[in-house]
Design brief:
The protein is of the alpha/beta class. It has one domain: Alpha-Beta Barrel (TIM Barrel). Helices cover 46% and strands 13% of the residues. The protein has 10 helices and 9 strands. It has a 9-stranded parallel sheet. Strand 3, helix 3 and strand 4 form a beta-alpha-beta unit. It is globular and about 50 Å long.
Length: 283
């Protein structure tokens, strides 16, 4: 099995001071995995814009590498450029550029509709300062007309200046390898890092997956449904499933793993420990 050399974690910005304090403790524990960076999500239509910016700048001030998510949503380009200036002036070098969700009722009034336009805006405004990560969808974006059109949109993001991609989470390794193979055949050569969602709660996972189009294989969903009222057993089963997935991915030569932490540390660290992550500190 290929050794895991790169790992990163995603956070969402807490709503209050107590949540920020808990997240600081989570970050301190996740530091044991020596992550390449932490990423911070950006709510639909910029709904967490200020909280995202403040958390990003706070993590950066602690000496940690951080990648703010950025989406245009309903924002004018000037608002995006102001954020880019703040991040560049602080010395932040990573950025996750996403289409994002447009708030209902705005429709075509949003200034930018696709992530490749946002990537192009970042490059036009900030040159090569940022290492830009974009999203990839091994199981096809839920809004895509077809796998071919989805791949074409991904290629457009890369052509606009993206450096690498982080995938939507999935539980079928074959979907990832098929997508990477189709990208390579199309001449799209950027690293594509699998996004990994640990399984800790049946109801939440079902809701997230229905919203983003991620498939939960039927056998996994049926077991989770059976175990949903037995949290320890559900999490033990989920850890087995995700460990097996990551082992298959590592055997296939992936460039790294990006873990959707849900602002938790226990399960992500348990997963990395099982995978024998060589950088993890075992005090």
């Amino acid at each position: 099995m290929t050794s895991l050399q790169r790992v990163s974690f995603e956070f969402f910005p807490p709503r209050d001071a107590a949540g920020l304090e808990r997240l600081a403790a989570v970050r301190a524990r996740l530091d044991a995995a020596t992550p390449e960076f932490y990423s911070v999500t950006y709510g639909a239509g910029g709904s967490t814009r200020d909280r995202t910016r403040d958390l990003v700048l706070g993590i950066h001030a602690e000496g940690r590498s951080v990648a703010p998510h950025l989406s245009i949503g309903s924002d004018a380009p000037e608002a995006v450029q102001n954020l880019l200036d703040a991040y560049r002036d602080a010395g932040i070098r990573h950025l996750v550029a996403l289409r994002g969700d447009i708030p209902s009722g705005l429709g075509s009034r949003a200034e930018v509709h696709y992530a490749e336009e946002l990537v192009a805006l970042v490059r036009a405004h900030s040159g090569d300062h940022f290492h830009i990560h974009v999203a990839a969808y091994p199981e096809v974006h839920p809004d895509a007309r077809s796998p071919a059109s989805d791949l074409a949109h991904f290629a457009d993001k890369v052509a606009a200046g993206a450096n690498e991609a982080i995938t939507q989470y999935f539980y079928n390794a074959d979907a990832y390898f098929d997508f990477v193979g189709r990208c390579q055949n199309a001449g799209v050569k950027v690293p594509i890092v699998p996004g990994i969602m640990p399984i800790t709660n049946y109801t939440n996972l079902l809701r997230f997956s229905e919203a983003c189009g991620a498939e939960i294989p039927r056998w996994i969903q049926k077991r989770l449904e059976q175990l949903q009222d037995d949290t320890p057993s559900l999490q033990a089963f989920g850890l087995d499933v995700v460990t097996d997935l990551c082992e298959r991915l590592l055997a296939g030569g992936i460039p790294g793993l990006h873990l959707y932490s849900m602002n938790q540390s226990k399960v992500p660290l348990a997963l990395l420990d099982r995978l024998g992550h060589p950088l993890i500190r075992r005090d």
